[in-house]
Amino acid sequence: MAAAVKNLCKASMARRFAAQPTTAKTIYIDAALYHIPVSVGDRSTTIQDTSCALMGTRFPVEGDAVRLFLQWGKGLHAQHLDMDLSCRIALPNDEIAECAYYQLTCVGAKHSGDIQSIPEMVGTAEYIELSLPELEAAGAQYATFTCNAYTHGALSPHLMVGWMDSAHPMTVSEQDGVAYDPSCVQHIVRISEGNLSKGLVFGVLDVVQRQIIWLEMPFTSQTLRGASSDCVKALLHRLASKLTIGTLLDIKAKAQHLTLVEDIHDADEAYTYEWALNPADVTTLLPNPNS
Fold first, then answer.
1. What is the pLDDT confidence band of residue 262, given thresholds at 50, 70 and 90?
2. What is the CATH code for 46-227?
3. Residue 287 burial by CB count (10 A; 0-12/13-18/19+): exposed, middle or buried?
């Protein structure tokens, strides 16, 4: 039934695009758009300051290692403010390995240590080093990334999460705060002050595909054990089954007899990853429910 509804939607969109007048002859579609679901019914829980991403976006892993990091407290006075970065690794035979403040090392992962207080105005951080060769050797399928507020009820609005190339060092000092090379950061987001939760699943590493999938799944528990694996799998399945922006643009191209070109400068219509970051622009492709 789900497949039939999806096909019906595609046929309806094809008729809609075919009825729209256009003078364009060529179209450019960024390859990244074929991995980004059309955001219908999804709500964002973050403000994304740098290297923005839509939920479901897949990032290729560069090299054999990834460093997850959690940074918080910058601009705040020194105080007890305990935020936690954790990672859950799905192994064969339904086994689970956890890398968190209560278990600093496990197969393929190493935690930097539990930080419970922030220094004056400079903030602090935790990070987890992931080794893809070790995860692959252990038969790991997924590694789920979570951040949690252990104190103060909710994630700090000054909190940022992301990942970077672990080939470059990252230091955490009680006096000097956090130091790393910003050019090594592959993705970073800031938690929204207006929509805080106790915890957030912010990504999943697909070990086999060597891709990180950006997620935004809030949960209410104090540790990663409250982030249901079944809920994460259900969200991944839902995102994978949704119509992608690239597929939607393919339907448009075929319905309007547009020729796909590989060079954006040769296109009468161009749809890039940056264009897709504006939901209002993507929505123009969809039918208006009020019309």
1. very high
2. 2.60.60.30
3. exposed
